[in-house]
Amino acid sequence: MKLVGIAGSIADQSYNRTLLNFIAKHFEGLVDVEVLDINDVPMFNQDNDQTNSAVIQNLSKKISTADGVIIATPEHNHTVPAALKNVIEWLSYEIHPFDGKPVMIVGASYHTQGSSRAQLHLRQILEAPGVNAVVLPGNEFLLGKVKEAFDENGDLKDQNTVNFLQTTLQNFIKFAQVINLISKTEDYEEEDLSAKEGTDTTIQGVDMNADDWLDQAAKKVHAVDGDTYVKLDSGLLTVNQLDYFLKTMPVELTYVDENNQFIYYNKTGSAEDMLAKRVPSQVGDALDKVHPKISRVIKHVKQVINTLRTGKTDLVSMPVPGGDESKSHVMHYYKAMHDEEGNYKGVNEWAVDIKPIVDQYLHETGQKLVKDPNAEIDATSGASEKPEVKVDVTSSASKH
Ligand SMILES: Cc1cc2nc3c(=O)[nH]c(=O)nc-3n(C[C@H](O)[C@H](O)[C@H](O)COP(=O)(O)O)c2cc1C
């Protein structure tokens, strides 16, 4: 499970950050915790909206894509420090990454109360409508007399305290799994497969569902072709070379952008010869046009895309057998793509026939497959007939 930690202090030496770092280190096998930095967050001011600044966007993205958040709050004047409240104000103004997000509160203070008053206030703040976090109920981890609590390595000295922290964390893991499972089943409905919203790379003024979208759109943007060079992240190829390369891939590739528009496939052969039967006139189509209008199928496609878009997982795989016997072991993989800032950029789908690989392995190792009489398999259904998304709710983008 991928969590992010926020310490409500911007002091260089913060005990609350030490506590989060200890959780990240000591419970590494249990959770994957990334401790976020709030030091550079500007002071909230409605008249100077900095929601789009890199620092706010980064915090928002990390929170949105995490399975949960742990906030470690100090106590200042019987409440949360201004630095923490400031962050929450930014994240409940124009954007709402805490909405529906499971949150666990912990805290450390110099005195015996262990930030108890700040924690109660934080609970109320997080439950305000604009924030709308889902705070773990009934569990409090209060670390009083914090100056004596850690050793020189930043580890909690008292074993009973560590054990109690572990119990609270385990309760939070179960809580977050349930909350995320509930929200996952609802989120997908927002996916717009008609792609009408558009994105910054959507080519305007061309009907995306037109059969000759590729020619029209290429003309509109003066797209290069032929022997013109294209500089890639780690290479320099002409457009022709890029085509030769992609067409001879041992997998069939499809590019669906973040606007749910199908903008590319590597045409490895005629539709009949391909594992997934794509035709050139489909290029540019919105996703609702390239899938059968069967509610079960549409729901499935939305679920897969939303799971990838929201970062609940970054890879979904499923068997999609082709029509004839020779295409009965085809796997489809759907991988989320991101830009350098981590923004979702669409789906890289690849289809591959795994039978030759399995055959080769069996041949090389002198083994053969034997039927498992207890196995429950459905060898006849395809994705469009019987969709089934297998998403591991405990996995996260960072683990793939
Ligand atoms: C302005 C200010 C007010 C404070 N008020 C309280 C308080 O009301 N209750 C308390 O237990 N500690 C109070 N403290 C001490 C805090 O316990 C301590 O600064 C903080 O929790 C340490 O967390 P940190 O090391 O993560 O910054 C206060 C500290 C400051 C600077």
Task: Write a structural description.
There is one protein chain. Strands 1, 2, 3, 4, 5 and 6 form a six-stranded parallel sheet that branches. Strands 10-9-13-12-11 form a five-stranded antiparallel sheet. 30% of the residues are buried. The protein folds into two domains: 2-183, Flavodoxin domain (Rossmann fold, 3-Layer(aba) Sandwich), CATH 3.40.50.360; 213-395, PAS domain (Beta-Lactamase, 2-Layer Sandwich). It is of the alpha/beta class and 400 residues long. Strand 12 (330-338) and strand 13 form a beta hairpin. The protein contains ten helices and 13 strands. It has helices at 15-26, 54-65, 82-90, 116-126, 159-187, 213-220, 239-247, 287-290, 295-309, 355-365, and strands at residues 2-7, 32-36, 68-73, 102-108, 134-135, 141-143, 229-232, 235-238, 252-257, 262-265, 315-319, 330-338, 344-353. Residues 378-400 have low confidence and may be disordered. Bound molecules: flavin mononucleotide (FMN). Residues 9, 11, 14-16, 74-78, 108-111, 113, 115 line the site of flavin mononucleotide. Flavin mononucleotide is lined by residues 9, 11, 14-16, 74-78, 108-111, 113, 115.
Produce a short descriptive summary:
With 400 residues, this protein is of the alpha/beta class.
Number of strands: 13
Average predicted local confidence, pLDDT: 90
Spatial gap, N to C terminus: 12 Å
N-to-C SSE string, H for helix and E for strand: EHEHEHEHEEHHEEHEEHHEEEH
CATH architecture of the largest domain: 2-Layer Sandwich
Bound molecules: flavin mononucleotide
CA radius of gyration is 25 Å
Question: How many helices does DSSP assign?
Answer: 10
CATH level-3 fold name of the largest domain: Beta-Lactamase
Largest sheet: 6 strands, parallel
Find the CATH superfamily of the largest domain.
PAS domain
